[in-house]
Amino acid sequence: MLRLFLPRDAAALALGAEDVARAITAEAARRGVEVTLVRTGSRGMIWLEPLLEVERDGIRQGFGPVTPADIPALFEAGFDDHPSALGPVEDIPFLARQTRLTFARCGVTDPFDLDAYRAHGGLAGLDRARAMTPAEIVQEVTDSGLRGRGGAGFPTGVKWRTVLEARGPRKYIVCNADEGDSGSFADRMLMEGDPFALIEGMAIAARAVGADRGYVYIRSEYPHAIAAMERAAGIARAAGLLGAAARGSGAAFDIEIRVGAGAYVCGEETSLLNSIEGRRGEVRAKPPLPAHKGLFGRPTAVNNVLTLAAVPAILAQGAAAYARFGLGRSRGTIPIQIAGNARRAGLFETGFGLSLGEIVEEIAGGTASGRPVKAVQVGGPLGAYFPPALFDTPFGYEEFDGAGGLIGHAGITVFDDTADMGALARFAFEFCAEESCGKCTPCRIGAVRGAEAVDRLCAGDTGALPLLGDLCETMRAASLCALGGFTPYPVESALRHFPEEFGLGRAAAE
Amino acid sequence: MDLPDDATARRAREIAGAHAGRDGALLPILHDLQAEFGHIPEAARPEIADAVNISAAELHGVISFYTDFRTAPAGRRSLRLCRAEACQAMGGAALWREVLAGLGLDEFGTTPDGRLTVEPVYCLGLCACAPAAMLDGEPLGRVTADRLSAALAGAAPC
Ligand SMILES: Cc1cc2nc3c(=O)[nH]c(=O)nc-3n(C[C@H](O)[C@H](O)[C@H](O)COP(=O)(O)O)c2cc1C
Ligand code: SF4
Ligand code: FES
Q1: Contact in structure between A443 and A436 (CB atoms under 8 Å)
Q2: CA of B111 vs chain A CAs: smallest distance (Å)
Q3: Which of A15, A223, A413 sits opposite B141 (nearest CB)?
Q4: Rounded to an integer, what distance in angstroms lies between the CA atom of residue A445 and that of residue A428?
Q5: Are A251 and A134 in contact (CB under 8 A)?
Q6: Closest of A401, A407, A359 to residue A382, by C-alpha
Q7: What are phi and psi of B43, to 5 degrees?
Q8: A304 lines ligand 1 (CB under 6 A)
Q9: Which residues form the NADH-ubiquinone oxidoreductase 51kDa subunit iron-sulphur binding domain (chain A) (predicted)?
Q10: Ligand 3 close to Cβ of residue B127 (< 6 A)
């Protein structure tokens, strides 16, 4: 029996995977061949999607990108010799070079097959956590060095301890799956490709802090991830992993999927909590911390998808096995997302510490257009633009901070030499103005003024430069959250590294 | 769906009722309403405000905060074009201008025949196959003017 694997990840679908699936079914029927077509998540090699795999002697052989027109020939050749043949998928250098802990199963298994999940190491972390006290689980996560993957890099163990120690009749785990940062798609890939990993991570978190309810807040732009999480939660409930007495452990824990409504700022944790409560997604002043007074005023652990999905492997393999990877205070692995104008765009999970240049030049292979790289924006719309001169910066929280940027959600957007840095700086302000929650004046009004100032500057009015500097300073100092506070990162980095694009000499931009 | 006001109100009450007892039910209710009516009908508002126990002003505040919620019906088909950075890096901005012009639109909006609403979106999570778009909820990657025309010519979902 022929066993084929084809992703149903949204990026694979966007590149025609469904047409390929239909062609496979039709061709198999025409030939009277029995085929099992397993729909998986994506391996993350998006330039090869749709990536079709066949299992032979226990080894997965890849073909990609394939089109429906390739299918008859692939059947004819017995899924062997074909121009799209890539050899054993796990030997493809892009994949072979990774350290896949969080994404170990993504692209490998059927995301809704709980038996396959267990057979590939799933639930070992939860099993171990069930034999531990909450304080021991928190200690294990603390020892792993895991920091929040949503952007701020806050130590997860410290956050969990605060919630564990907070008193309240009810506590919550809230998974932040708003993934609004352009250039990032790891949360989406994980939810579509290995949703049980997130559910297991949430169940472990719930045990650690004493929560009995969880929410997953997913942006509405992700209909496939929403459907996948709904389906996986239903399967987990039916299997007793979620629900009244989860897995006979006596501890009730269940989750609910909530859908955003098109507001970027709802990725900010307090705005997200307001949104779940049914309010405008305005940012709340801190304190109180969500860990003390979060959702419905109760102690709440808010964590990113990748943070929670890293936890099962940490519990299963031990804190030391995770902390072994990394650099300085950035421990473990980070799923880097290579986006935009990159030859090999996709998801690359690796220990912290590769240089930006290694990622962009070696792993991504430069630009898709074949033109020179001009800049890469790291960390989404609030992240800085890095010129090749800074490509020796190692991928780590402190290292990027030191280079005037941030790693954010680890999305890297590559631009070739046709990029218009003035237009990108203007866009940063435009985006901030569009998405501002409106609570602070520097963000709401400053962003509009900022876009005007960039226009003036690019039109040759150097008098706008001091104004731009003042605006950035005010936004940085007087914004309640990072939307207003970090918009100066893309603007000022573009100005600093590419002054000539704003009609300025290098000295003026400093 | 077009209903007389009292029928709309009745239906809104039913939709809200399905979420009774749920904490923070407002966004799920609004999503359900919009899925059914294509927008949040005026006649539904008093029912919803009543169901979640907030004032009309508060409800307006919530609906107006979120870009997803419409106050008027959109075109029969929906096209969302990603304006964010990774798509810009792959020529999205120029391509979207071309697409809009091809549809006879000066800016994002609904075609005069009401057939299609074209809206900007800030990232679809398809940044590794940019420029990206979504047509009636279906993702499209590495979009070109030709691929988009072909997709638009395809059968519209009912
Ligand atoms: C404007 C803004 C948008 C944000 N968007 C997200 C997001 O989409 N996903 C996310 O996990 N964190 C986002 N964050 C960070 C969250 O506020 C918060 O730090 C995070 O969810 C905490 O989880 P972690 O510790 O696991 O990273 C955003 C922050 C700001 C200021
Ligand atoms: S900085 Fe902007 S988005 Fe953040 S709280 Fe202030 S107004 Fe709202
Ligand atoms: S930036 Fe366009 S899909 Fe992410």
Answers
A1: yes
A2: 22
A3: A15
A4: 14
A5: no
A6: A407
A7: -70, -15
A8: yes
A9: 422-467
A10: yes
Q: What is the mean pLDDT of each run of 10 residues along chain A (510 residues)?
A: 96 98 98 97 98 96 97 95 95 98 98 98 97 98 98 97 95 98 98 98 97 97 98 96 70 94 98 98 96 98 98 98 98 98 98 98 98 98 98 98 97 98 98 96 95 95 95 96 97 96 75
Is the previous residue joined to A155 through a cis bond, with omega within 30 degrees of 0? no
Q: Does the pTM of the predicted model rise above 0.95? A: yes
Contact A427 B140 (CB under 8 A): no
Q: Which of A13, A340, A411 sits opposite B130 (nearest CB)?
A: A340
Cα angle, residue B72 at apex, residues B68 and B73 outer, rounded to 5°:
85
Query: Following CA atoms A203, A43, A152, A230 in sequence, which dihedral angle do they give, to the nearest 10 degrees?
Result: -40
User: Which fold does the domain B77-152 belong to in CATH?
Assistant: Glutaredoxin (3.40.30)
> How far apart are the C-alpha atoms of A225 and A120, rounded to whole Å?
21
Nearest CA residue ID for atom 28, ligand 1: A268
- Residue B26 contacts A where some CB pair is shorter than 8 Å: yes
Residue A481 burial class via C-beta count within 10 angstroms: exposed 0-12, middle 13-18, buried 19 and up: buried
CB-count exposure of residue B36 (10 Å: 0-12, 13-18, 19+): middle
CA A424 – ligand 3 centroid, Å = 14
> Which of A122, A120, A119, A3 has the alpha carbon at shortest distance from A60?
A3
Residue A471, token pair as written in the block: 């605006």
Residue A187 contacts residue A314 (beta carbons within 8 Å): no
- Find all residues with CB under 8 Å of A31, minimum gap 6, and list them: A75
Residue A386: which region, alpha, beta or left (left: phi > 0; alpha: psi -120 to 50)? Answer: beta
- B135: nearest CA in chain A? A14
Distance from CA of B85 to the nearest CA of A (A): 6
